[in-house]
Amino acid sequence: MTIFYKFTINFFYKIYFSFIIWLTNFLPKKFRNNILNNLLLWNNRIILSRKGKVKNILILLPRCLQYFKCEHNVISSVDNCKLCGKCKIKDIMEIKENYGLKDVKVAPGGKIAKMFVEEINPDYIIAVACEMELILGIKEVFPYKVLAVNNIIVNKPCINTDVEIEKIETFVKKLL
Ligand code: SF4
Predict the structure, then answer these.
(1) What Rg do the C-alpha atoms of the chain give, in angstroms?
(2) How far apart are CA 176 and CA 59, in angstroms?
(3) pLDDT above 90: residue 156
(4) Residues 28-84: pLDDT tens digits?
(5) Cis-peptide into 157, omega within 30 deg
(6) 61 CB less than 6 Å from ligand 1?
(7) Where are the alpha helices (DSSP H) in 12-146?
């Protein structure tokens, strides 16, 4: 990696991300989401273009993806999921199984998500969350490489959210 490239990447994730986060405070919601989505697309392109050796992928999920009334504690271990199919955690467990992935984590917030990342120290992270959480998270864990997948808000406040499983699987395939 050249010094110029390293400088550009650092600038993008540290300065430009901070600027966009600040800027979104003043923008209408629709416009704000467009900007954040574009930034996430750029991030994903950059991450895939820098693809290197992959030993360990972490799939990081938000707590709101779990069926709200599910009693199983998937935060302490996603293996506690009983695969009932009431939420997409079942489908993500199938991806874990099919591709031999070691680590899928469900985080109730940014701090726990960061803790999981530091504990596991993955080569790549595939993170699911809403746009702003993804941007904040990517900036927070930089230089970890994060591929971002937006979750879909079905009910407000954020419970029983959804995600396009194909997007997660496509990233897994591209990395392996
Ligand atoms: S798929 Fe797993 S996490 Fe989702 S509701 Fe069923 S048991 Fe709970």
Answers:
(1) 16
(2) 14
(3) no
(4) 888 898 999 999 999 999 999 987 888 899 999 999 999 999 999 999 999 999 999
(5) yes
(6) no
(7) 17-23, 29-49, 89-98, 110-120, 131-141
Q: Whole domain around residue 55: which residue ranges? A: 3-175
How many domains does the chain fold into?
Answer: 1
Residue carrying the six token digits 């954040």: 36
pLDDT above 70 for 1: no
66 lines ligand 1 (CB under 6 A): yes
Q: Which amino acid is at 82?
A: K
Percentage of the residues of the chain whose pLDDT score is greater than 90 = 81
User: What's the longest Cα–Cα distance across the chain?
Assistant: 51
Per residue, the 3-state secondary structure of 122-147, as one string, reads: CCEEEEEECHHHHHHHHHHHCCCEEE
Residue 73 Cβ contacting ligand 1 at under 6 Å: no
Residue closest to 153 by CA, chosen among 71, 31, 65, 72: 65
Q: Give the span between the Cα atoms of 72 and 93, in whole angstroms.
A: 14
Q: How is residue 106 written in tokens? A: 């469900």
Task: Give me the pLDDT at residue 158, please.
Answer: 86
